[in-house]
Amino acid sequence: MENALSYLTALPSNIEERQQFFRKVKDEILDEAGDPLIILRQIKSATKLFESILEDKDIDYLFLTEAEKYGKSFDHAGARFSIQETGTQYEYKACGDPEWDALSEQIKELTEEKKKRQNFLKAIPFEGTFDQATGTHISRAPKTSKTSVVVTV
Q1: CA 26 vs CA 33, 36, 120: distances in Å
Q2: Which among 2, 121, 8, 1 has a CA at the least distance from the CA of 59?
Q3: Is 121 within 8 Å of 129 (Cβ atoms)?
Q4: CA distance 39 to 99
Q5: Domain range list for the chain
Q6: What integer is the mean pLDDT of 85-103?
Q7: Residue 125 neighbours by CB under 8 Å, 6+ apart
């Protein structure tokens, strides 16, 4: 009986293998070799699975601990690994800087005003309207969107 990791190690692991696998999957999907909706469900499910694995703190800690054994930057199993700071954030609010606080408050107020204006621009009749203060013709905000299949797994 195979363990879960054997499924991962069977997947393509370099750019050439990934490109070849992608081409085969695409060809088979377009040739309708399987139920497209089941394939989409499996792809979405696998995406969520990999995201969960990569976001898990225990697993991430183990990956970091193992990588530290090799140094800051190294090659291993056909890949380049490096230990870096990622997702750096600063807590500016904790600084007690009155100028930053004032700017932050202005941005908050402007963001709220902008949202109100966007709601107004979305609700304008299709023929448009006129700004009573300036007489300028204002058009309704054009809407763009993409139709997709949403899968909940």
Answers
A1: 10, 11, 43
A2: 8
A3: no
A4: 54
A5: 4-82, 96-153
A6: 96
A7: 140
Q: Under a CB-based contact definition with an 8 Å cutoff, are residues 65 and 83 in contact?
A: no
Chain segment 120-152, per-residue pLDDT in tens: 999 999 999 999 999 999 999 999 999 999 998
Which neighbouring-strand residues pair with 82?
Answer: 73
Cβ–Cβ under 8 Å, residues 151 and 137? no
**Residue recorded with tokens 């183990």:** 62
33-59, pLDDT tens digit by residue? Answer: 999 999 999 999 999 999 999 999 999
- Cα separation, 105 vs 28, whole angstroms: 54
Strand partners, 130: 137
pTM metric for this prediction: 0.73
Q: Could you tell me how many residues make up the chain?
A: 153
Q: What six digits make up the tokens of 146? A: 């993409």
